[in-house]
């Protein structure tokens, strides 16, 4: 199993390493890791060392399913910022082309796999959880979209393995084998894997403690088939125990005036809340190793949010030290 870290190609991340990929390489080595999972934007930077990139995280368009299923419902004069970052494109055809471009950039970077969120959420649904589309509708739309993408390539197979990642909104959650089967049985290509994000899975439950979160993840994995477990080749390993925060701030109507805000202002309001919901902090209980033992992935991604290089280093080392500790107490 290879251990890697998350990083983006944006200046806010690279500035921590003096805008030097060689300094990123030294940091990865100091953390006793083998590479990075790169959050990729729309550009392709030829200065990024191919041997440093283990995987690429594709842009996540939270509203892309609506463009794919109901393009007529997307305003013709949509805010360009929202069009690019929420819907992903202006039309279904350009959405396919944009996705293909990103896959091809991932291939040029030497990525073993490219991660894509299988989800959809309208902005007001962050609060209400009254969703426009059901889980099956999102999964079916994702399958049809990805099939359309892959038909552009020889043999109908993508140029880089696509890794399907779970979230806690409608789409792929790994909380039901039936939903996993419903999705995968519609796929017309085979060059794909699953990417389990442990914190995202915890966010799907009312998790208040780390131990409860670990039990929740193990229980969910116990409900999956051996075939599905074998397809989970990468794990975004992070802990999130935001159940109390979610109950306090969500499952209710949006703040007054939310719908009249610009897209940029809506996102500015939502992102700090999502950061508190999706904590991305290191595990501290060595029982978390049971999750890794069940899956036996090829890649473990230490995926954390941080405000500085020092904080990032502290979180990586804290989790690596947890993984080295022996399990002394059995979680009931």
TrEMBL record:
SUPFAM superfamilies: Xylose isomerase-like (SSF51658). It comes from the Archaea. InterPro entries: Xyl_isomerase-like_sf (IPR036237). This is Xylose isomerase-like TIM barrel domain-containing protein.
């Amino acid at each position: 199993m290879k251990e890697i870290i998350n990083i983006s190609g944006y200046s806010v991340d690279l500035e921590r390493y003096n805008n030097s990929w060689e300094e990123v390489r030294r940091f990865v080595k100091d953390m006793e890791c083998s590479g990075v999972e790169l959050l990729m934007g729309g550009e392709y930077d030829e200065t990024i060392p191919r041997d440093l990139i283990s995987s690429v995280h594709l842009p996540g368009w939270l509203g892309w399913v609506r463009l794919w299923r109901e393009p007529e419902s997307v305003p013709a004069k949509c805010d360009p910022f929202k069009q690019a970052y929420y819907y992903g494109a202006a039309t279904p055809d350009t959405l396919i082309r944009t996705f293909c471009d990103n896959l091809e950039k991932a291939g040029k970077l030497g990525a073993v796999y490219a991660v894509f969120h299988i989800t959809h959420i309208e902005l007001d649904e962050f609060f209400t959880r009254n969703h426009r589309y059901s889980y099956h509708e999102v999964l079916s739309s994702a399958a049809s979209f990805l099939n359309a993408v892959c038909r552009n390539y020889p043999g109908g197979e993508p140029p880089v393995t696509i890794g399907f990642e779970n979230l806690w909104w409608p789409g792929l959650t790994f909380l039901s084998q039936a939903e996993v089967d419903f999705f995968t049985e519609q796929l017309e290509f085979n060059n794909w894997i699953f990417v389990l994000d442990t914190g995202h899975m915890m966010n799907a439950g009312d998790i208040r403690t780390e131990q409860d979160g670990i039990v929740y993840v193990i229980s969910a994995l116990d409900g999956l088939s051996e075939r599905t477990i074998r397809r989970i080749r990468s794990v975004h390993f992070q802990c999130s125990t935001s159940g109390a925060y979610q109950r306090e701030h969500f499952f209710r109507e949006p703040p007054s005036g939310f719908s009249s805000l610009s897209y940029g202002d809506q996102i500015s309001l939502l992102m700090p809340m999502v950061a508190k919901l999706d904590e991305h902090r290191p595990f501290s209980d060595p029982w978390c190793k049971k999750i890794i033992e069940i899956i036996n992935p090829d890649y473990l991604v230490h995926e954390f949010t941080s405000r500085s290089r020092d904080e990032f280093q502290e979180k990586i080392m804290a989790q690596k030290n947890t993984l080295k500790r022996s399990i002394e107490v059995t979680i009931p």
